Amino acid sequence: MFPQRLDSPLAYEIAKAMMDGFNRHYRLFRSESARAKHRFETADWHGQQRAQRERIEFYDLRVRECSTRLEREFKAGEQGMDVWQQVKLHYIGLLVDHHQPELAETFFNSVTTKMLHRSYFQNDFIFVRPAVSTEYIENAEQRPTYRAYYPTRATLGAVLLQLLQDFDLQRAFADLPRDIACVQAALQQQLGEVTLRANFQIQVLSGLFFRNKGAYVCGKLINGFQEHPFALPILHDAEGRLVIDAALFGEDDMLLLFSFARAYFMVDMEIPSAYVQFLRSMMPRKPRNEIYNALGLAKQGKTLFYRDLLQHQRHSSDKFRIAPGIKGMVMLVFDMPSFPYVFKLIKDYYPPQKDTSREQIKAKYLLVKQHDRVGRMADTLEYSGVALPRARFDDAVIAEIEKFAPSQLEISDRDADGQQEVVIQHVYIERRMIPLNIYLQEAFDAGPDDRRARAQIERVVLEYGNAIKDLVAANIFPGDMLWKNFGVTRHGKVVFYDYDEIEYLTDCNFRKLPQPRTEEEEMSGEIWYKVGPKDVFPETFGPFLLGNPLVREAFMRHHAELLEPSFWQAHKERIQAGYVHDVFPYEQDKRFNPGR
Predict the structure, then answer these.
(1) What is the mean pLDDT of the chain?
(2) Where do the Isocitrate dehydrogenase kinase/phosphatase (AceK) kinase domain residues begin and end (predicted)?
(3) Residues 172, 231 contacting (CB under 8 angstroms)
């Protein structure tokens, strides 16, 4: 029971200090995001990449700072439950007029769970559910969350010009009238010959979305009862001038732009929940947790994901099972059939051919988190101390964990509610995809005479090679390129998800296979030439990947260069020279002028 009186002055001081800690965090987070505009205008691509990496660390740094202050000034960890009950109530009071209440609640949870013994982790002491609504928060700044424009067919071009000028980009466009004409034609094609209704308008989020070498205008076209989400990518051309590169329309295009396999955006937001609400109206199929993630607010994404998981468990009855597919040597993977995510544990020991450690594997996953994922590497949610009902686990899963990762498993009634729980000490959670080897096997099973199966093989082999090339462009060598380490998304995109052997491309040495000098060397069953720890021989990929004739034919037609050391060496040299590749979150045929 919460106290009826707030009679502890110390409780208010602790709550105020925690709020100060959060406000400092969001001020720094927002300031770094706002500077993305200047980096884009000055083509500081390496600075943009560096800022995207560093911003991910902001949250944990601020949580540590706040925890240290609370312990130093208030000995907060030693205070009793009565004080902490009042701390939470005071904190709720401080949230009433706050512009980021949901983020501040998550910050409160992070600080308290870092400082207090887990017996305190009850509904009374953390925000299991939101305490303050994020609806109808008004922006005190002059810049609103979104701007509304009211064109007619005759004034559409002039309104588009004003819309773009309102972003105040401090770099000249190469030919803005030309670009506006392209956008106008695309919008009119989207509208067709329909009657423009009284509410015809364009709503655009007032902050540009920056990622890699692009800036994106995100908005929607509203006419009557129809809403058409859209995004306009703005890039630099070869002469360094700005161009609108494409017009993306519809939920599917937006889902690809905001994919879980891409790096986080930088966008200056006073009221993040308003941005999420607007984006959710454009992408109703995308969970709110993934939208928060895409905006760089990963801790809030984790909070919402965990709430979604708990809610799903209340309304489902299936059990966690060992995930379908070939079992990995490093990770143990389980899932719940009705829930579209997989849970991945690092095993306690590995076969001799896997020369690695738990800390090295965690470092690889952190590398992926901080790197540009270019739409080809799945984002992960990382949790510690996750408690799930024992009754929801198939016995085979528990046996598998007890065999391969016993250090990660605790089974107890830690909440003292009479129900056994499975506590996983450390787990990664990813969006579930169809493993590429299973996807291919489905086509193989249909037989070589099945036209649809042949088309499926052709399409996915093309996508697989494109995934490798996108990773190469982002300075990533996947290491283990077997089909089983890639998955197929609901949009048919091929995405890499096994990171224990991942390396920076620039750290690898791509070599041609030496020619045998003697008959003994030619007939030897062992490798007779010297191989360094980072040596890679692309010619050896073929025997592992191209056993099926249909796969081999499609691969050699589209991606034969991946078997040549020269391909990898050339990209490595360009990256080392400082070149940052363009990787587009949309197909080439959507670009207004692919050649520029």
Answers:
(1) 92
(2) 318-588
(3) no
Which stretches within 411-540 are classed as H helix?
Answer: 436-446, 451-473, 519-523
Name the amino acid, one letter, at 410. Answer: E
Give the predicted TM-score (pTM) of the model.
0.93
Same domain, 245 and 194: yes
Q: Are residues 441 and 578 in the same domain?
A: yes
Whether 465 maps to a domain, the answer reads yes
Domain tally for the chain?
Answer: 4
Contact 301, 292 (CB under 8 A): yes
Q: What is the pLDDT of residues 258-308, one digit of tens each?
A: 999 999 999 999 999 999 999 999 999 999 999 999 999 999 999 999 999
For residues 296 and 103, the answer to whether their CB atoms sit within 8 Å is: no
Q: For residue 421, what are the domain limits?
A: 316-432
Question: Is residue 301 domain-resident?
Answer: no
Question: What are the binding residues?
Answer: 323-329, 344
What are the residue numbers of the active site? Answer: 379
Does residue 409 belong to any structural domain of this protein?
yes
Residue numbering of the annotated binding site for ATP: 323-329, 344
CB atoms within 10 A of CB 533: 8
Q: At what angle do helices 101-115 and 58-74 cross, to 10 degrees?
A: 60
Query: In the block, which residue shows the tokens 């609370």?
Result: 70
Chain CA centroid to CA 339, Å: 18
Q: How far apart are CA 266 and CA 274, in angstroms?
A: 16
Residues 445, 586: one domain? Answer: yes
Tell whether 500 and 579 lie within a shared domain: yes
- 3-class state of residue 485 by DSSP: helix
Q: Is residue 139 included in any domain, yes or no?
A: no
- What pLDDT score was predicted for residue 581? 87
